[in-house]
Each structure stands twice: as structure tokens, then as C-alpha cells.
TrEMBL record:
GO terms for biological process: phosphatidic acid biosynthetic process. The lineage of its organism: Bacteria, Pseudomonadati, Pseudomonadota, Alphaproteobacteria, Hyphomicrobiales. A divalent metal cation binds at residues 39, 87. Substrate binds at residues 41-45, 80, 109. ATP binds at residues 28, 39, 87, 105-106. Keywords: ATP-binding, Cell inner membrane, Cell membrane, Kinase, Lipid biosynthesis, Lipid metabolism, Magnesium, Membrane, Metal-binding, Nucleotide-binding, Phospholipid biosynthesis, Phospholipid metabolism, Transferase, Transmembrane, Transmembrane helix. This is Diacylglycerol kinase. The chain crosses the membrane at residues 40-58, 64-86, 107-133. One of its GO terms (molecular function) is ATP-dependent diacylglycerol kinase activity. It catalyses: a 1,2-diacyl-sn-glycerol + ATP = a 1,2-diacyl-sn-glycero-3-phosphate + ADP + H(+).
Length: 135
């Protein structure tokens, strides 16, 4: 969703400070979260996280295991946001198909895949494997 008014608007030298800056930053983050919710991959990751949390409850996961899973999931959200930003920039700067644009998108996608695999492996370990291995 292009917003030409933002693409051509010049920035002023005035910067917010203190609480107004914090509120503005929070509103930008909320905008980013809304944008990310428009991505099918992110919605799938949210569903997978919810399923993993149900598995954690059923398997009586420890507090540490919950915290580790949440941290891994937050990393995955960050990577997904950066990947989406890369895709948006590539599409804006290079609307034609190019090797450089394809490589940038592929590398962003690989970063997300690595975090998806890490999240999945950890969830499988906690839910299934950790109960069979002595501590």
C-alpha cells in the first residue's frame, strides 16, 4: 500500500523528545504490527506459536522453557518484519525483476526459515523429547 504523500513529504528538523517521542515510536511499532498481520506467513507463524503454547501446557513445560520459546518467537517476529521491509524496499526501488532484488528477497526468506526451524526444533524438544531424556 503506497502512500505517495509520505514518499514526497520532506522531513523537518524538529524532533520529538521525551514522552511524545515514546508515544510516536509506539505508534510506528503498532503500524508495523498491523502491516505484518497482512502477511500470510506471519499469520501462520502466530498459529504455530499458539499450537506450541498448547503443547507446552499439555507437556507441563517449565517457566524457563516458556520464556525461551517466547524469546525465540519474538526473534522470529523481528526477522519476519525485517524480511517484509526488505521485500517492500526491493519492490519500491526495483519493480522490474533483477538478480539483486531476487537475492535480497531470498536471503531475507532464508533468515526467516532459519528462525522457523529453530522455533520448531525447540518446541518439538520441549513437547516430546525432553520427557524421555534424563536431566
Amino acid at each position: 500500500m503506497d502512500r505517495p504523500d509520505l514518499m514526497t513529504k520532506k522531513r523537518t528538523g524538529h524532533k520529538l523528545k521525551g514522552i511524545p517521542h515514546l508515544l510516536a515510536a509506539a505508534s510506528y511499532s503498532i503500524g508495523g504490527a498491523r502491516r505484518l498481520l497482512g502477511e500470510a506467513a506471519f499469520r501462520h507463524e502466530l498459529i504455530a506459536f499458539a499450537v506450541a503454547m498448547v503443547g507446552f501446557v499439555i507437556s507441563s513445560a517449565t517457566l524457563f522453557q516458556y520464556v525461551a520459546m517466547v524469546l525465540l518467537f519474538l526473534l522470529m517476529i523481528a526477522f519476519e518484519a525485517l524480511n517484509t521491509a526488505i521485500e517492500e524496499i526491493v519492490d519500491r526501488v526495483s519493480p522490474e525483476i533483477s538478480d539483486m532484488g531476487r537475492n535480497a528477497k531470498d536471503l531475507g526468506s532464508l533468515a526467516c526459515l532459519c528462525l522457523i526451524l529453530a522455533n520448531s526444533a525447540y518446541a518439538v524438544y520441549v513437547i516430546f523429547i525432553s520427557h524421555f531424556l534424563p536431566v
